[in-house]
């Protein structure tokens, strides 16, 4: 097959046929990918989950997942990536949302017009039925000229049938006029394939440039004809049976109205605080950290290692000393941070899968406009409370570069990740409501000031909020537990080695006397300006590696209530962790990542000092 | 922005460019098209036409 497109980033066996999963955003492509390849990519009930390409094997095929697109063209980066993979496909599995047939069949018809072998998975059939949509599948097959398999992917319904039918994928009935067909044949003399030719005919500059021809201006003619045909098909295959609004519809509507939506949001945030800050951070961590790790594990490991290595030797200190790799590192990661992170991911997965996230986006849209963002930005912001690194990647879903810059800066500055949040909640809860309110208001004020400032100084305008509202669904426990497990596992593997390195570094600094030297040098600042004991420097140094380690380091210091508050504000606004910095460099370039890093230093110590002055 | 200078509307949902001023819905994603250009909220598309 000739194609102008290479899949550079994926190592693909070219001898195998490629099955490409294609569909609009949020139709469940990733579930099909997981089923066919028996692997796992993240599945959520909001648009834009697939930002990178996943590949796997199914029978003798290579299966490729793609970002959700409304059509094959080059209007944005996701489309360009999807376009390249679609053009190289041998078979296309087109996942269609049965509830939004009118929207989704445009892409189906375009794929058929591209002369590709297509099989349609008519997904979310349960939802369509609930909404009173009766779809004549046989008629739809006849109209499209390709196989149509009804599925409910989240329940594994229809997936085995789809897998068995992939080999029967075929070319379908086109929507092009005779005039366009003739033009297509003409261009195909040069391109040797109709898929590329159609895109050239539809005015795709990138494809045209590859073949050294001019893009043609028939997009609107072809699109309008295709739309007309899709509308005709939908008219003939769907019968709407009048049904009352479902409970999901009613809840969805309540979540969207400010009068009911804002109190519900506040209740949910309070529930989150109770769950993470009180239950997990205090009760659960009390058991895992103090009883299990400090009470049982540490004495055991210290005893065991002491048999071979003296605790007073350098290696002994590195392994089982105050900042030991086998003591403090393991205790912090498994006993303290893991329960917090898992707890947060569990809660977040419920919000994601229920379809609540896009509704929060709609609810907070106007407020975020003041910060130069639209409501869509709430998704990376909320994800940032889980992991700032992951959230930074999802800022790609924002409409403009300007919005991405603002969102990434705010994520790096004022959004504490789940591990850090858990430790903070655990430290601040015993201090009482007054300190909690001062802490939240301070961070919130910094967040608002930073956003407003960037909104004023950055050139350009932000885009409007237009986001698909998925139906409100009861989350599936299996998917929630799986997501929680995989993200927590990712956290351990990502954070573990960095934390261990940080711990070794701190031990070496301490044993070499450098830590003391740094503490002495910055003491006037830490003690004089922030009014903290100079030992807090150790926590801040750990915080450079990961902010949550810094917060965890505060756990072992004897601080007064005022000092705890100031140190928590500083560590919250402190520099993003190394992993988040690397992603920021990748997403926005070194210069902007450096600005976020330096800006965080300034904001953290300036705000910490001001709070110390006034309390 | 280019969309207004060139007399095109850009669909805010799927970014499709539409020249025909009479179309109410984006042919590609079926979303309702805004009268004003989606990128620049100051000027009306129709005024520019």
Structural commentary:
The complex is a heterodimer of chains A (615) and B (49). In chain A, 64% of the residues lie in helices and 7% in strands. Chain A is of the alpha/beta class. Chain A folds into 2 domains: 17-174, P-loop containing nucleotide triphosphate hydrolases (Rossmann fold, 3-Layer(aba) Sandwich); 263-614, no CATH class. Chain A is elongated, with a radius of gyration of 28 Å. The model of chain A is unreliable at 1-9 (pLDDT under 50). Chain B has helices at residues 2-5, 45-48, and strands at residues 9-10, 17-18. The longest helix of chain B has 4 residues, at 2-5. Chain B starts with a helix and ends with a helix. The model of chain B is unreliable at 1-5 and 36-49 (pLDDT under 50). At the A-B interface, helix 3 and helix 10 of A face strand 2 of B.
Q: Topology of this protein?
A:
The complex is a heterodimer of chains A (615) and B (49).
Chain A: E1 17-23, H1 29-37, E2 55-58, E3 61-65, H2 77-87, E4 91-97, H3 101-113, E5 117-123, H4 125-130, E6 133-135, H5 137-144, E7 147-150, H6 159-165, H7 178-191, H8 194-201, H9 205-210, H10 219-237, E8 238-240, H11 247-256, H12 258-306, H13 314-320, H14 325-354, H15 356-363, H16 365-369, H17 378-384, H18 388-394, H19 401-414, H20 418-428, H21 433-457, H22 477-511, H23 514-529, H24 536-545, H25 547-554, H26 561-573, H27 578-588, H28 590-614
Helix pairs in contact in A: 3-10, 5-10, 7-8, 12-14, 12-20, 13-22, 14-20, 14-22, 17-18, 18-27, 19-21, 19-27, 19-28, 20-25, 20-26, 21-26, 22-24, 24-25, 25-26, 26-28, 27-28
Chain B: H1 2-5, E1 9-10, E2 17-18, H2 45-48
Quick one: how many beta strands of chain B?
2
Number of domains of chain B: 1
Characterize the overall form of chain B: globular
Proportion of residues in helical segments of chain B: 10-25%
Q: Which strand order spans the largest sheet of chain B, edge to edge or round the barrel?
A: 1-2
- Compressed to H and E, one letter per element, the order of chain B equals HEEH
User: Residue share in helices of chain A?
Assistant: 55-70%
Strand content of chain B: 5-15%
């Amino acid at each position: 097959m000739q194609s102008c497109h290479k899949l550079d980033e994926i190592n693909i066996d070219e001898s195998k046929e490629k099955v490409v999963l294609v569909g609009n955003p949020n139709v469940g492509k990733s579930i099909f990918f997981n089923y066919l390849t028996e692997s796992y990519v993240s599945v959520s009930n909001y648009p834009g989950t697939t930002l990178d390409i996943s590949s796997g094997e199914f029978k003798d095929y290579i299966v490729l997942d793609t970002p959700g697109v409304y059509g094959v063209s080059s209007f944005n980066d996701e489309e360009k990536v999807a376009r390249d993979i679609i053009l190289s496909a041998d078979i296309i599995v087109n996942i269609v949302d049965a509830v939004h047939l009118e929207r989704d069949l445009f892409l189906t018809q375009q794929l058929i017009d591209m002369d590709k072998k297509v099989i349609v998975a008519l997904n979310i059939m349960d939802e369509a039925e609930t909404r009173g949509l009766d779809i004549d599948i046989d008629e739809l097959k006849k109209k499209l000229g390709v196989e149509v398999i009804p599925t409910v992917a989240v329940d594994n319904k229809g997936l085995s049938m789809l897998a068995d039918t992939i080999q029967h994928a075929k070319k379908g009935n086109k929507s092009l006029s005779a005039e366009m067909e003739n033009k297509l044949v003409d261009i195909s003399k040069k391109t040797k394939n109709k898929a590329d030719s159609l895109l050239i005919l539809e005015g795709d500059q990138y494809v045209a440039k590859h073949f050294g021809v001019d893009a043609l201006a028939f997009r609107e003619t072809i699109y309008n004809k295709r739309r007309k045909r899709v509308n005709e098909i939908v008219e003939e295959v769907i019968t709407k049976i009048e049904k009352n609004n479902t409970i999901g519809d009613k809840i969805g509507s309540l979540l969207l109205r400010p009068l009911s939506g804002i109190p519900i949001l506040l209740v949910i945030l309070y529930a989150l605080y109770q769950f993470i800050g009180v239950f997990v951070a205090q009760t659960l961590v009390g058991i895992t950290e103090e009883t299990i790790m400090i009470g049982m594990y540490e004495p055991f490991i210290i005893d065991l290692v002491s048999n071979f290595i003296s605790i007073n030797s350098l290696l002994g200190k590195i392994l089982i000393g105050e900042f030991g790799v086998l003591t403090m590192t393991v205790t912090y990661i498994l006993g303290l941070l893991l329960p917090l992170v898992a707890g947060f991911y569990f809660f977040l997965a419920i919000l994601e899968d229920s379809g609540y996230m896009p509704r929060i986006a709609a609810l907070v849209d106007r407020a975020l406009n003041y910060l130069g963002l639209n409501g869509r930005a709430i998704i990376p912001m909320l994800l940032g409370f889980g992991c700032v690194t992951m959230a930074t990647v999802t800022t790609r879903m924002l409409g403009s570069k300007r919005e991405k810059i603002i969102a990434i800066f705010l994520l790096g500055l004022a959004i504490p990740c789940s591990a850090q949040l858990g430790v903070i909640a655990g430290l601040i809860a015993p201090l009482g409501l007054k300190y909690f309110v001062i802490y939240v208001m301070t961070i919130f004020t910094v967040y608002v000031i930073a956003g407003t400032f960037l909104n004023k100084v950055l050139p350009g305008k932000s885009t409007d909020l237009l986001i698909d509202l998925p139906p409100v669904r009861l989350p599936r426990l299996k998917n929630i537990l799986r997501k929680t497990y995989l993200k927590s596992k990712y956290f351990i593997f990502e954070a573990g080695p960095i934390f261990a390195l940080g711990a070794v570094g701190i031990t070496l600094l301490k044993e070499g006397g450098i830590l003391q030297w740094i503490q002495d040098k910055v003491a006037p600042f830490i003690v004089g300006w922030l009014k903290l004991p100079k030992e807090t420097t150790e926590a801040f140094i750990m915080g450079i590696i990961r902010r949550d380690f810094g917060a965890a380091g505060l756990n072992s210091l004897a601080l007064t209530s005022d000092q705890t508050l100031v140190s928590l504000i500083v560590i919250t606004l402190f520099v993003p962790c190394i992993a988040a910095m690397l992603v920021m460099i990748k997403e926005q370039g070194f210069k902007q990542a450096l600005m976020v890093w330096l800006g965080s230093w300034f904001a953290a110590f300036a705000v910490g000092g001001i709070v110390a002055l006034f309390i | 922005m280019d969309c207004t200078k060139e007399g095109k509307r850009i669909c805010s949902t799927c970014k499709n460019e539409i020249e025909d001023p009479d179309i109410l819905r984006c042919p590609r994603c079926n979303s309702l098209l805004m009268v004003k250009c989606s990128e620049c909220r100051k000027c009306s598309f129709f005024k520019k036409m």
